[in-house]
Specification:
Layout (H helix, E strand, L loop, with lengths): L2 H13 L5 H15 L5 H10 L1 H11 L4 E5 L10 E6 L10 E6 L2 H17 L4
Antiparallel strand pairs: 1-2, 2-3
Helix pairs in contact: 1-2, 1-5, 2-3, 2-4, 3-4, 4-5
């Protein structure tokens, strides 16, 4: 995916109410270069549609060992927002390459963070 496609996916993830087929297809395509045959695009898509556990599993295959954190308040309120941070280390916040996503569902926040991470990488951050 190029930077414009990643930005569009990031924005779609942050604006969406829930994961859908179109988002799952785009996210699987975004992660394809990192999966190295560990998961097929079809399996990644199915896992992303399965919910939070599936999304964490797919991203874990794509970014093994990376630190992943969620922040938010569990609520039935329609305006609940989850914040996801994805970075290479769990230590001090001195990593240049950090993905951040905010969304109404945890899988969407995670995928927004991955899209942000990939955009940062394209911009030259390491």
């Amino acid at each position: 995916m190029n930077e414009a496609e990643l930005k569009a996916l990031h924005e779609r993830c942050e604006a969406a109410e829930a994961m859908d087929d179109t988002l799952a297809d785009a996210a699987a395509r975004m992660l394809e270069d990192r999966l190295d045959g560990k998961l097929t695009a079809r399996d990644a898509r199915a896992a992303l549609l399965a919910g939070t556990d599936g999304a964490v599993n797919v991203v874990g295959h794509a970014y093994p060992g990376w630190a992943l954190s969620f922040d938010g308040h569990a609520s039935k309120a329609p305006n609940t927002v989850w914040r996801c941070t994805l970075k290479e280390t769990r230590g001090p916040d001195d990593d240049q390459l950090v993905g951040i996503g905010n969304a109404k569902a945890m899988p969407l926040a995670l995928l927004a963070a991955v899209a942000h991470l990939k955009m940062m990488h394209m911009a030259g951050y390491r």
